[in-house]
Specification:
mainly alpha
Length: 93
């Protein structure tokens, strides 16, 4: 069976789930509607103030954690071969 025919055979299941191409338009619409609804009723400034660090130490810890998270992506560390190839301890694909 050709690749094109095989891909078309897989299409009906995806269409039944509401997936259209790269995404689900209905889910994206519901998300946008929910965000709009939240923003129209929530006091965003108050929520932001409650979420702000309570001390200089907490602010520093959050900044360090954010920096550490941005230093490397999944699989950049040679010790993390399992992250790049799950189930393969030696890192071979």
């Amino acid at each position: 069976m050709s690749q094109k025919i095989q891909n078309q055979a897989d299409q009906p299941a995806a269409a039944a789930d509401g997936v259209q191409g790269e995404g689900n338009y209905e889910a994206a619409r519901r998300y946008r509607d929910g965000v709009t609804e939240f923003l129209s009723h929530a006091d965003v400034e108050e929520i932001a103030q409650r979420a702000a660090p309570k001390s200089t130490l907490e602010a520093r810890e959050l900044a360090l954690a954010a920096e550490k998270g941005q230093l490397r992506s999944k699989g950049d560390d040679p010790a993390d071969v399992g992250a790049m190839y799950p189930g393969r301890e030696d890192g071979t694909p």
